[in-house]
Amino acid sequence: MLPSPISGEGGARPRSGWEGEGRFPTRKALLARAKWMRTHPTEAERRLWTLLRDRRLATFKFRRQQVIEPYIVDFVCFEQRLIIETDGSQHAESEADAARDAFLRRRGFRVLRFWNNDVLGDAEAVATAIAAALRSLTLPPLRGGPLPLPKWERG
Which whole-number Å values give the CA distances from 112 to 11, 22, 74, in the listed order? Predict the structure, then answer.
């Protein structure tokens, strides 16, 4: 049985119902969860996917519910190393999300988070913000591993 989508993005934290209870989920479990999440999106994820799919936004390719071990991210553009997350109120001031974002940044990703009500209420502003992020840093094709962190994220 898979956890409720209300509980978040899945991955990286021990929870019952995953293989190897009390440990991080296996790759197989993450892939199964990601597949389930693609077929059961939240309304905000569904709305955002209509803006991102088929290279509709600035011709960049996005994938949804993608495994980046040990996490599952809502949307990712690998070409620009940009991750987009849609969050409900359970993510407000979440230490787990902060740790997750730091992990992803160390691997060369930028993370943008939007509240579900912003995606549902003002999708045009969200699309504009994502397009600006895509234009702000055009990266060369990834060869030989992750890119170094931008200087503003080095600590």
Answer: 19, 30, 11
Rounded to whole angstroms, the Cα distance separating 47 from 74 reads 12
Task: Write down the CATH superfamily of domain 41-139.
Answer: VSR Endonuclease (3.40.960.10)
Q: Which carries the bigger pLDDT value, residue 48 or residue 25?
A: 48
Q: What is the DSSP letter of 63?
A: E
Phi, psi of 31 (to 5 degrees): -65, -40
The count of C-alpha atoms lying within 13 angstroms of the C-alpha of 80, restricted to the half-sphere facing its C-beta, is 26
**What is the pTM (predicted TM-score) of this model?**
0.72
Q: Is the pLDDT of residue 44 over 90?
A: yes
Distance between CA atoms of residues 50 and 21, nearest Å: 36
